[in-house]
Write a structure and sequence with these properties.
- The structure is a single chain.
- The protein is α/β, with parallel strands linked by helices.
- The protein has two domains: 166 residues, Rossmann fold; 160 residues, Dihydrodipicolinate Reductase, domain 2, CATH 3.30.360.
- It is 31% helix and 24% strand.
- It contains 13 helices and 14 strands.
- It is globular, with a radius of gyration of 20 Å.
- It starts with 11 loop residues before the first strand and ends in a 7-residue tail after the last helix.
- Bound molecules: nicotinamide-adenine-dinucleotide.
- Nicotinamide-adenine-dinucleotide (NAD) binds next to helix 1, strand 2 and helix 5.
- The site of nicotinamide-adenine-dinucleotide (NAD) has 29 residues, from helix 1, strand 2 and helix 5.
Amino acid sequence: MPPRGWAPCMSLKVAVNGYGTIGKRVADAVRLQKDMTLVGVAKTKPGFEARRAMEKGYPVFLAGDGKKADFDAAGIPTAGTLQELLRSVDVVVDCTPEKVGAANKALYEEAKVAAVWQGGEKASVADRSFSALANYTSCLGARKVRVVSCNTTGLSRAAAVLRERFGVEHWEATLVRRAADPGESKRGPINGILPTMTLPSHHGPDVRTIFPDLPIATSAVVVPTTLMHVHVNHVRLSHPPSSGSDVMAAFRTTPRFVMFRASDRMEGTPQVIEWARDLGRSRNDVMENVLWEEGLKLEGSDLYFFQAIHQESIVVPENIDVLRAMFQLETDPRRSIERTDQALGILRVGA
Ligand code: NAD
């Protein structure tokens, strides 16, 4: 339940711990919500990202083994320690690297603060895993929730549509994964294709933290790109409609999906990112699942479709919705999604 003394009419006080790819986006997104206040961000090291946070007016706190002297030397004032930040918020969104988040759990429990983790952590770090279109209401009032990873968010959104409208008998997905985020210089491959040698891959079980009975099996390869992931899906529907355009309409009328036409020279992920640049989207973010009309085909009960997932930003709206669910700022998922999408400028393209 929300903390004692806290009422839904108050602005939710939020901390972001870990200010990298996901953390800086979540911090900006929180700042754009009328019902939330960003109290501060926590960082271990000074650098251009901490400096940018300071320039945006975000109070910067020292996390982990971060040293005040290092920040002072870099000319970045700190507002205190992470522990102090935790004392002045209702909830912390942990955006630290994989496994660091789980190590922070004791700290959050000690501070008696509600916490949100990211998909790099095991599901067991939290009481529930979250995907807004799929299980918003089951997270109402929860204190410890994990927003699932970028790939799992993309698959769960699609599953929310297909399961509800047509039923899913069987689903196989091959995930073509980006090698690194654009800002990273230490990951690869820069040439070659790396099959993920765990078969099936962990993504299917991760989707089942959201839909426990979904018959989905996944495999993955990593390719030298930084832009987006692409999922190649084959789904056997239990109650298939008469034509693929009905499936297309189901996606098109659901928030957080955009539908493009390849014939519109939208050939693949480079054009999707260019589209986001043309829209002036912050950091070229594409928070929607991206589908193509020509990239969806129904043959009897067999549905084939591609979807592209912008790994850096797809989980950002879910990080906002999860806060509304946890603190019951909104009990209706559709209204939370609408408020989030409006604040973040998520469009209904092709609707
Ligand atoms: P990142 O490396 O870009 O950012 C992590 C930030 O945390 C860095 O600024 C790092 O310096 C900082 N940090 C390191 N140790 C810390 C500590 N002890 N305390 C506070 N901050 C610390 O990582 P990311 O890509 O933003 O990933 C964060 C989480 O989000 C992971 O669980 C990841 O699996 C998940 N995620 C990442 C992506 C993606 O594609 N980047 C997509 C979805 C989910």
